[in-house]
Design brief:
This protein is mainly α. Helix content is 70%, strand content 4%. The protein folds into two domains: 70 residues, Arc Repressor Mutant, subunit A, CATH 1.10.10; 158 residues, Tetracycline Repressor, domain 2 (Orthogonal Bundle), CATH 1.10.357.
Length: 231
Amino acid sequence: MTTEPAGDVGSESPVERAFATALTPRRERTRERLLDAAFTVFAQHGIHGASIEAVCEAAGFSRGAFYSNFSSKEELFLALAERAMRRQLVSLESVGKELEPDVVRCGAVDHDAIQTILSVVVTDAGDARQWALMRAELELLAMRDPAVGEPFLAQEQTLRTELGAAIGRILRDFGLRFTVDERTAVDLLLSVYESSARAAVVASPEREDGDATPGAAVLSQLVNLLVTNAD
């Protein structure tokens, strides 16, 4: 098992500052491995059923490594949610660059192309079941604990606003627009997806992650309502 110092490296000493800087890539890799492990462990056992030791064991690190990156399981939860949304933003920008310029054909919106754009607003299909479980755990925790609820709500508001703006920019590039304001559109899309994802998990609790992905029919209908020509 790999071990790391329990505390952060930091000092006014130039030598120690240089040493801390040199550790930055390693600490980032440690953080990512802890997040990956926590995603699986929390989805399987819930935040109260999963211990910090279980997360550390799954990641291959000591408790010291955990506490040098996160102060608590709650902070780790919030970091998982933020990482997911940031990855969505990066994917969104990539999809926008790859789309062909014929998203609007003969004055009609190509909804398959729009669904390609909107598909990155939700988690990768391979993680659908785990993320549905994680999301439910996080929302319950946020509702029960104000210390988690307040930063979670602020995080959600900021990232959803960024998502709405990013999707709006892509739509405008292709002569399209939302029929409602960007933030409302993203809220509707995420709400419908998350609801159907939970239903898929409840209906088939034993399936693998990829098989738990909710159907696209409802999202497709919502796209028809939310996206139109800019003219």
